[in-house]
Amino acid sequence: MxxxxxxxxxxxxxxxxxxxxxxxxxxLARTVEPQDAGPAGVIWRRPGLRWPQFAIRKPVDGRAAxxxxxxxxxxxxxxxxxxxxxWAAALRHGGDDVGPPGDRxxxxxxxxxxxxxxxxxxxxxxxxxxxxxxx
Length: 135
Fold this sequence. Notes:
It is globular and about 45 Å long. By secondary structure, the protein is an alpha/beta fold. The chain has a four-stranded mixed beta sheet with strand order 1-4-3-2, covered by helices on one side. It has a four-stranded mixed beta sheet with strand order 5-8-7-6. α1 (12-23) packs antiparallel against α2. Helices cover 21% and strands 30% of the residues. It has helices at residues 12-23, 80-92, 130-133; strands at 4-8, 29-30, 42-45, 53-57, 72-76, 96-103, 112-117, 123-128. The longest helix has 13 residues, at 80-92.
């Protein structure tokens, strides 16, 4: 299990708006205001839980943030409808479609997912599986 995932951001206000719009469909809420973020970054997590966390921030080294080729962050959604909504919200807020919502039997018989890139090119997956729905 991981504790947190951190993604670099160049345009922090734009990325906060994007992730506020899409992560609600994965059951995550922002817990830090961007101006109060500090070195930990702007954080989203499930209400009532400290971990795991998803965070964004400008890179510590001062260089530009870049997306990683082959890197993907995947978010569990509570239903197929939530996957559809997350994908649609991502597209409305500057994301790019890299795989519309649908069944992905290549992974498992109940794997339903959608894929996008955020406004800075980071690849995201929103998925629903019965196994995760019970957690």
